[in-house]
Amino acid sequence: MKDNPISLFHELESYVRGSKDTLHRYMYACILEQRLADLLLLSRCGVHPDDEDRLAVRLASQRSLCVQAASDLAEGTEEARGSTPAWPDCKVTKSSAAQKRPELLSLVKVMQELRTPECSGYDLCDLEVCREDALHWLRDHADPSSPPVLIGVRTGGAFYAPLWSSALQQRWGNKALYHTVRALRMPSDPGASLYLPEELSILPAAIEPDTDIVILEDQPHTGGTVLELAGRLSAKYRLNKPVWVSSPGRLFQIENGRLAKCSDRIPLNTGTRKRIWQMLGNSEEVAEFLLPKLGLTDAHPADLEAVPYKSVPQWNDPMYRREVPFRINPKKTPFYIRRKSTNEPVVFAKFIGKDLFGDFQFHQLKKFEKYFPDILAYQDGYVMTKYEPGLKEMREMFVNMPSAVTREICQSVSGYWKTLLDSCQISGGHPVHPLADHWQARLGEMEDFIGRKLPYDLDWFERSLHTEWTSSAHVYTSLPYANQYGHWKARLSAGQRLKTYRFHIDSTWGGTSSIEVELASFLLENRVRPDDFRLLVNQVKKEAGSLTIEAVTDALPIACVLQAANLLKQAKDESRLSKELILSEAMQSFEYLQAMKPKLSDVR
Question: Which Gene Ontology terms cover its molecular function?
Fold first, then answer.
């Protein structure tokens, strides 16, 4: 998994180097701690060549840096101190990990991704409250004579544990250390958590009988992740007292194999001004706050209102903390700013994450400005763009427009993948696409849902889904969540000037994908003709030397299964797509693929 010099992670390192923001530096330090801890785990499992002792020393040093950065953050230090450590490369591929230790596949996948923790994406908190959580635990729930063993569960817990350690060092100095462990997924049961003995053995060999253990984790859902870890720790240390669990603002104890809530408070800093996502539901407040930032010189506050793109569920309001599970989740709450007098939308606002993750995402997004409406502002994790009325779906244009127009579309959108390769490339991608294991089950579920058999070539799909993409360029992208044709639009002006748009470029909730699958998804969703297929692939090939038309053709069935999986998801979530719409879309896609298959031999 050797990192490309232009990889996403080196882009992140460069961005943080240019920032003096203490929160940016703190979160990057925690991301780096996770990277080093994962590398040490791979080394101890015999699949990474780096020296264990050297990695262990560097990891201990990095954790000290995390605690210092946590103290700076909690104390309100205005400007970050010290240098930004370099991003450590990794020389492990998924195929080599699979051959030696199949259970490490999920770890290598995690290491390819810039995962947004819940605290920055969809269970928002102000991180500094975690330090107050630790002091609250000391004051109201425990009076230990020795420092507790602090264990953060990577990913989320790695951002909380240093803040606890920083608080506890006020009493115990450098003895208040912390550790992190990675919860992996069992190959035989993806819903179950797995902690490897090679990592648990790094924890203290023994502890005093009255020592407390505190596990730091994102908000527990079922509690399965922390309950499994607590069980392993109880066996390791022969515990005679309950294990504590903390997520931002919350404290639990494990009693009789269950999580019992001890305290709960809204995890927001009361000294911080109100953010947009705290104003949701109050249209006038949102509009009045944003107007000075949007450059709408002809608008008056009384004539503007904020209108949810979707309904704003009450559980997004901090006052509804009693709801379970509770989240402050702006991911679900895009909105328009609209003129009351004309009902005309003028601004569209979408949340892309807060703190370092949102800020870096916005930094990346600006590289794609050519494919965006005009960006008016970025505030509190929301990107606000000029509302663009009258856009046409690109699919409609590929189907109905003359070849001169569709060729121009292909020329225009090819630059999107160039920018993606330049800014979001990762290394060591998937030898076989993740959908390969269960693709027939997914299509079977779709057939059951629509009550029809899908027309597809079983051999072609089986060969495609098990293609090894080891020589491909891989990117971190929004594709797994935003591959529908509705994300691609265009406008042809009266003077025949073409402007193309790609919506939902942000990969805050994204994943890894090969460039072949990226292109195949675009071609399938937009019903691209064979000649345009060839033109687009050859344009992108200029930036991705290993790309071939044959490989993109081989990826088309993957795009079809990916679309089916997303349609099924939308049938179940809040959007609740109708059965009739899903039937129409699925059948058209599979029929398009069947009709295209004999023509693709000419494209090759």
Answer: pentosyltransferase activity
